[in-house]
């Protein structure tokens, strides 16, 4: 019942504006509203001026916009068409549209082979879901399938292929969806992984996992200079 109560609360999001530090962000009714998991990641974002960033499941675009204030290029992906529109509005509001490419797609599907990033962010849908949970756009922003790992496992399967040597992943998930399993899988792939931060929330803890890829040169590495790369 606790899972259902939290899901009901999340589904009742309405069009509004949320704030992180001194920055305001529009949130459409059909888009997952930034919450404790979002801010846990936002508070620990460190981005260099020459870096490229991938924000997976961008939602309203809050994390992507924060990154774009410093990064060379941020690619933001979301399967929710309302989230794509919302993120574009927030990018325009914060005057970072020229350094952002916001596209609709399912996880890594919109990317091209050889696209590599310095940093990949994923505030994953991580809550275990009851079979009769509705599949509206907002609920898809937190629903992680039967054991909460559907999207996490798919992300982990492909993320390394889009990360530069020496690059890093910041992944948010719940203790309800087995943080230990995520750490084990990252380490199996050769990452150095750890829980960077943790926050109590409701009946769970929210964990921010940091994973670093070993530094080694890759002949397949392809740098891209601007967002037009994705519209060709």
Description:
This protein is α/β, with parallel strands linked by helices and 232 residues long. The chain has a single domain (2-216), classed as Rossmann fold, CATH 3.40.50. It has seven helices and nine strands; from the N terminus they run H-E-E-H-E-H-E-H-E-E-H-H-E-H-E-E. It has helices spanning 2-11, 36-42, 62-68, 81-93, 137-140, 150-158, 179-188; strands at 16-20, 23-27, 52-56, 73-78, 100-104, 117-123, 163-174, 192-201, 204-212. The strands form two sheets. The protein has a seven-stranded mixed beta sheet, with helices on both faces. The radius of gyration is 17 Å and the shape is globular. Residues 1-14 have low confidence and may be disordered.
What's the short story on this structure?
The protein has helices at residues 2-11, 36-42, 62-68, 81-93, 137-140, 150-158, 179-188; strands at residues 16-20, 23-27, 52-56, 73-78, 100-104, 117-123, 163-174, 192-201, 204-212.
């Amino acid at each position: 019942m606790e899972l259902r109560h939290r899901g009901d609360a999340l589904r009742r999001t309405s069009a509004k504006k949320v704030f992180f530090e001194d920055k305001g962000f529009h949130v459409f009714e059909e888009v997952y509203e930034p919450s404790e998991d979002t801010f846990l990641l936002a508070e620990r974002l460190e981005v260099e001026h020459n870096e490229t960033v991938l924000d997976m499941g961008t939602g309203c675009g809050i994390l992507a916009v924060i990154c774009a204030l410093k990064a060379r290029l941020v690619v933001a992906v979301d399967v929710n068409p309302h989230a794509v529109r919302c993120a574009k509005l927030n990018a325009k509001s914060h005057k970072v549209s020229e350094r952002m490419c916001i596209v609709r797609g399912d996880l890594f599907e919109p990317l091209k082979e050889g696209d590599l990033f310095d940093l990949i962010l994923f505030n994953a849908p991580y809550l275990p879901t009851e079979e009769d949970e509705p599949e509206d756009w907002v609920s898809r922003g937190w629903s992680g399938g039967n054991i909460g790992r559907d999207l996490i496992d798919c992300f982990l399967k492909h993320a390394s292929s889009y990360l530069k040597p020496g690059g890093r992943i910041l992944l948010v998930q719940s203790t309800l969806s087995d943080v230990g399993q995520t750490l084990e899988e990252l380490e199996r792939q050769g990452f150095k992984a750890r829980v960077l931060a943790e926050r109590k929330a409701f009946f769970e803890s929210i964990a921010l996992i940091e994973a670093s890829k070993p530094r080694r040169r890759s002949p397949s590495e392809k740098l891209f200079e601007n967002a037009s790369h994705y519209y060709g």
